Amino acid sequence: MQTLVQTGAVTKVHSVRRPWLRDVIGILAIVIAGAVGYWLFPDNLALLTRIIAVALLVLSIDLIVGYCGVATLGQAALFGAGAYAAGIACVNGVTEPMTLIAIGGTAGAVAGLLMGTIMLRAHGLAQLVLSIAIVQLFHEAANKASSITGGSDGLAGLMISPLFGIFEFDLWGKTAYLMGLALLLLVFIALKFVVSSPFGMLCRGIKQDPLRIRAMGAFVFPVLLKMFVISGAVAGMGGALAAISTQVVGLDSVSFELSANALVMLVLGGLGTLYGALIGTVIFMGFEHVVSSINPFHWMTMVGALLIAVVLAAPGGLSSLVEKVRGEKA
Amino acid sequence: MQTIFSIGIDALAFGMVLFIICIGLSLTMGLMRVVNLAHGAFAMIAGYIASYAARDLGLGYAVAIFLAIIGTIVISIPLERFLYRRIYGSPELTQVLMTIGITFCVIGITNYFFGPTLKTIPLPQALSQPVDLGFRTIAAHRLFVIACGAVVAGGLWYLIERTSFGIKLRATVDNAAMSDALGVRTQVVYAISFAIAIGLAALGGVVGAEFLPIEPYYALRYMVMFLVVVSVGGAGSILGAVIACLVLGLVDTTGRYLMPDFGNFFFYAAVILIVCLFPRGFFGRAQ
Amino acid sequence: MTAGKRILGAAIGALLIGSVSAQADTIKVGIIGPFSGPFALQGKNFQAGVEAYMALNGKTAKGHTIEVIYRDLPAANPAQSRALAQELVVKEKVQYLGGVYFTPDAMAITPLLAQANTPLVIFNAATSAIMNTSPLVVRTSFTTAQTTTPLGKVAIDEGVKKAITIVSDYGPGVDAENAFKKAFEAAGGQVVEAIRMPMNTTDFSPIMQRVRDSGAGGLFAFLPSGPPTLGFTKAYNETGLKKAGIKFYAPGDLTQESDLPALGEAAEGLKTSFHYAVSHDSPENKKFVEAATKAIGGADQLSFPSVGAYDGMHVIYKMIEATDGKQDAQKAVDAVKGLSWTSPRGPVRIEPDTRHITQNIYLREVAKGSDGKLINKEVQTFPNQKDPGLATQ
Question: Given an 8 Å threshold on Cβ–Cβ distance, is A256 in contact with B107?
């Protein structure tokens, strides 16, 4: 493990001038981290799968917060849309896991379209409040429609068929983890292409100076809306993965709390790099899991202290720390 | 007709509680540009101090309020000096991270020392009795809260619009570097404004404890509501905050009376509508 | 990176410890509950009940040492619940699962039980339907229907003909509404209006106004225990409903003992029905309260989840004795079917067909005890109540 990390870091220094190589190494790092997780913690795959599902949510937030500069505290609405769509489809007889992921992604994209249409009407603080209001409305709706969603008791009894007809979703969660890891990898690669495409560049431009982009003749609203749809699809797939791996969907998946937690993870890891989203999720959830196992009663103080320490030591998030170290070495 | 009056007075009382607790946050967010999510944590600390003073030491209600405000400000001074000063001018999301961290710590520490039970602040006899208004009875405490809200709104308006400190504050908000150059000690102005905001949070926490009971999770439980109210009013605007609290109080109360099953739908639909009509809040400053 | 290493170190350490202790004859019991966050008090009561049982009955059952592992689940979160249960079974190698405060969390765990060969003893989660999701679940708490049903007759006996129901809009609230309506109408009453209010309601005056306008002679309420109950009971007093003679009925969640000091005199005279009052007068309860108070660190924090946990541990001990330390979930569950004993709450029995607890339900009135503190004073007993929610299924 030690040597792996070191060689990784050394090669990265050499690759600064070739961005595509950097991405290849980054993706390799995710694969290695995923494999290491699988071999080192074979008894914690349920937790690791949950981390992957939330990582997809955090990635989706990074797309609109980190790349478009749209503040949101309501992303769980999209995650939950995916989770509930997959869950409801499953209860009604669609049990093939890949199909369910696709259903979740589609539902998330539709919800993203809706949410983007409303949220992009405002700016700054007002935008943030719109996102809160939307996630609360989704939450209320899911609670009210208890005949379809199970309401506050949760939507239970999802029977998922084995993946490719062979691999069961069982107690040990190997199938769920490996499927989740593959999904995360595919999404990550796709998103790398998205953010480095002309469209992704346009989004960054809008984040930095929307007025200038308008003056250049581009339409801001449809560009951002498109990103919302992509972001919704990613979040929705995360929700579907959570539904498949836990075989139950609860109201917490459309909650403000989940949205806020995910945003905290993103800021912790660092905005606008995609890597930050992954680092933040793993560190936050891993840290929370360890301290809450050690002391289930008073772990919150430790998590709070971690957040404060990160702001003091690395205001740009943990990934900025990596950049800084690399910068010094180069 | 009676019912309309009755709902009106409930809405007014509820709106004023919201106002008292939220106005401090509105000041920090609008004037100091700090998204202080730990605002509720300070209100909660004040509640614990007041509860300790009034229930365990047997002091009077007024004394308890006074001690709570002073105590909370004292606790906030080192936090301002060592933590908040680092994030003045930082991106909002960094501020969110820091202040959520502070909130988590406060919750954890309170839970550890005071336990998870509800804490109450005993009211004096005069405030705990129902008062007959002719068409219905209302708790005297609610009238007290309405009065408190009015006094706070008036006092703040006077402070910001009519005193020399208010002029310095507004100058610092508009252009800190320029004010500094002109001899305004902006650090001091920030520190004082922060103390005022914390004092208001403390007052709100104690006075509003009948509505929002004091317990360790207080700091997070009502965070969304505070944030929504401040944004709808327009951060930094006293008049905006008053109107937002009254409007949202009215929507909430009426919704709960007419269609309690869909109370939340009403509230958040109203929020979306208002924000779409007034993207900067009722009286938000141009950014 | 240091945080990553620390996680790694802690995890490896945990693995090592796990493999060592598996060799000794130690039986692990995993308890999942809300030990932090908004429901921390209820989780603390789980812990107090468990520790009280182990203090009074020793840490061994038939020679097997029992080790309890706590895992925190702050709010209803089925995904996390499942991950925790999975971790407890797979990594910590627990033979028994216990605890669980919220229904969705229990629903997330039950599908795992057969494969894990592990029984789940529910200390709280109170929706009837949980019992149907797995034959390896046993419950030692109560169901909302079970505690609510006697109130229908009580209201009629006290001369209430028309009632209004006010419940929090979520699963247990709806269960309570249905149970009361059924019992009340069966006894000849009429529910004139049924209000479901959002969970996060803080100001109840408009709802009380609505009660007044409805012309009902009594109100039935259900809210989850915690801060909102304070505002609710206060609003009932302050809006003059109490003075107007409108009667108040609710299950005991509204007047749990740990909330009573905060509710204060506003609560005096409120009538609630429940399976357990801390003030219950019996030698078993005296012993229990003494031990549990010591475990929780203050008498004013003790509340009903502690007795669910205490009896839950009793069931787990019996299961361990029956299987002699071998992991056999079905045998363990079969062994406690029909088990009856005297709990701190009174005589109880695990029904063989439903695996739910049959117990006395008490009508209590909030009153000052001999030391001047508010207690739930038992005024009437409804003996041997089964769960009506399950009976109808």
Answer: no
- C108 pLDDT more than 90: no
Same-domain pairing of C382 and C294: no
pTM: 0.85
DSSP class of residue B80 equals I
pLDDT average, residue stretch A282-294:
88
- How far is the alpha carbon of B74 from chain C, nearest alpha carbon, in Å? 26
Q: Where are the domains of chain A?
A: 1-40, 47-255
The proportion of chain C whose per-residue pLDDT surpasses 90, expressed as a percent, equals 20
Kindly report the nearest CA distance between residue C283 and chain A, in angstroms. Answer: 31
Residues C228 and C245 in one domain: yes
Does C229 share its domain with C316? no
**Full domain range(s) for residue C313:** 24-142+281-355
Q: Minimal CA–CA distance to B38: which of B222, B246, B276?
A: B222
Residues C165, C115, single domain; the answer is: no
- Whether the pLDDT of residue B52 is over 60: the answer is yes
* Contact flag A247-C82 (C-beta cutoff 8 Å): yes
Q: Quick one: C151 and C244 in the same domain?
A: yes
Contacts of A109 (CB under 8 A, 6+ apart): A229, A230, A232, A233, A236
* Closest among A142, A136, A157 to A93, alpha carbons compared: A157
Q: Do C39 and C118 have their domain in common?
A: yes
Residue A15 confidence (pLDDT) above 80: no
> What residues of B are in the A interface, CB distance below 8 Å?
29, 83, 86-87, 90, 92-94, 96-98, 100-109, 111-112, 224, 227-228, 231-232, 235, 262, 264-265, 268-269, 271-272, 275-276, 278-281, 284, 287
ipTM value, please give it: 0.85
Within-domain flag for C6: no
Indicate the residue of C40, C206, C238 with minimum beta-carbon distance to B139.
C238
Pairing relationship of beta strands C374-385 and C357-368 according to DSSP bridges:
antiparallel
CB contact under 8 A, A301 and B109: yes
Same domain assignment for residues C266 and C169: yes
- What pLDDT was estimated at residue A7? 36
Write out the CATH class of domain B2-277: mainly alpha
Q: Is residue C345 part of a domain?
A: yes
Give the position of tokens 């225990």: C225
What residue in A sits closest to B93 (Cα-Cα)?
A267
Taking the C-alpha atoms of residue C29 and residue C66, their distance in angstroms, rounded to an integer, is 7
Q: Which residues of A71-97 are buried (b: 16+ CB within 10 A; e: fewer)?
A: bbbbbbbbbbbbbbbbbbbbbeeebbb
User: Are C185 and C256 part of one and the same domain?
Assistant: yes
Selected for mutation to probe chain C from B133, B211, B212, B265 (highest C CB count within 10 Å) is B211
Helix (H, G, I), strand (E, B) or coil at A158: coil
Q: Work out the minimum CA distance from C70 to partner chain A, whole angstroms.
A: 7
pLDDT at C13: 47
Residue C29, both tokens: 């019991």
Structural domain count of chain C: 2
CATH number at residue C155: 3.40.50.2300
Does residue C5 belong to any structural domain of this protein? no
Chains that touch B (3 or more CB pairs under 8 A): A, C
Query: Is residue A158's pLDDT more than 80?
Result: no
Q: How far is CA C338 from the centre of its chain?
A: 21
Query: Which residues in chain A have Cβ-Cβ distances shorter than 8 Å to B34?
Result: none
| Contact between chains at B93 and A263 (C-beta distance less than 8 A) | yes
User: Is position C301 within any domain?
Assistant: yes
Taking contacts as CB-CB distances below 8 angstroms, the residues of chain A near B284 are 125-126
Of B92, B93, B104, the CB nearest to A303: B104
Residue A171: name the closest of A36, A288, A43 by CA. A43
pLDDT band at A325 (very low <50, low <70, confident <90, very high): low
Residue-wise pLDDT tens digits, B83-130: 888 888 888 888 888 999 999 999 989 888 888 888 888 888 888 777
- Judged by a CB distance cut-off of 8 A, whether residue C107 touches chain A is yes
